[in-house]
């Protein structure tokens, strides 16, 4: 389609066929495009953006849904950390119990032992192990050893177990029989 007419002279143009090549001056092309796609001018009373009230309402809706969701995620993360810590304490308690069983079976030594797991990068998890054949502790002198292992999370860092710190306790007994003595001279 050729555009070589002056703007405003003839408005009966054939705009149904847009397959042809548009030629003409820039002013004619602008006029042609204006006649196809009318440009809407904003009046003084039409809104150009969002009002402050709309923004505050949108912010309140977002905050009303986002804050509980973040609170739920925070609570879930805290529970996950606490569960992981308790599983670590149980694993360390079993490990320490096995060490004490092996040492007591070999030497039949009574005593109490304390320490932490700083070598495993867990200095805040500590243990206390007690091996006793005293009847007051549940043992039989020379025949039955009572072994107790407690692992705890030392939250306040005072190297002592307090009542509000999470803990994991294991207890077992080890018998001293002549068969064991014959196998381990």
Mean model confidence by pLDDT: 81
Query: What fraction strand?
Result: 15-25%
Task: Report the C-alpha radius of gyration, rounded.
Answer: 42 Å
Q: Helical amount among residues, as a percent range?
A: 25-40%
Strands side by side in the biggest sheet: 1-2-3-4
> What is the straight-line distance between the termini?
112 Å
Biggest sheet, in brief? 4 strands, antiparallel
Molecular shape: rod-shaped
What report would you give on this structure?
This protein has 185 residues and is of the alpha+beta class. It has a domain at 91-185. Helices cover 39% and strands 20% of the residues. It is built from three helices and four strands; from the N terminus they run H-H-E-E-E-E-H. It has helices spanning 26-36, 52-107, 178-183; strands at residues 111-117, 122-132, 144-153, 167-175. A four-stranded antiparallel beta sheet has the order 1-2-3-4, with helices on one face. Strand 1 and strand 2 form a beta hairpin. The chain starts with 25 loop residues before the first helix and ends with a helix. 11% of the residues are buried.
């Amino acid at each position: 389609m050729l555009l070589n007419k002056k703007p405003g002279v003839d408005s009966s143009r054939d705009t149904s066929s847009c397959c042809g090549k548009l030629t003409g001056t820039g002013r004619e092309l602008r006029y042609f495009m204006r006649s196809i796609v009318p440009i809407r001018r904003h009046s003084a009373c039409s809104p150009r953006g969002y009002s402050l009230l709309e923004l505050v309402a949108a912010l309140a809706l977002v905050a009303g849904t986002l804050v509980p969701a973040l609170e739920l995620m925070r609570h879930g993360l805290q529970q996950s950390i606490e569960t992981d810590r308790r599983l670590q304490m149980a694993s360390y308690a079993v490990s320490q119990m096995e060490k004490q069983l092996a040492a007591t079976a070999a030497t039949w030594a009574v005593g109490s032992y304390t320490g932490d797991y700083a070598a495993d990068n867990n200095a805040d998890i500590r243990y206390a192990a007690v091996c006793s054949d005293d009847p007051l502790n549940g043992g039989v002198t020379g025949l039955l050893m009572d072994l107790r292992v407690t692992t705890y999370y030392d939250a306040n860092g005072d190297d002592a177990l307090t009542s509000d710190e999470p803990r994991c306790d294991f207890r077992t007994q080890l018998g001293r029989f002549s068969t064991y003595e014959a196998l381990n001279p």
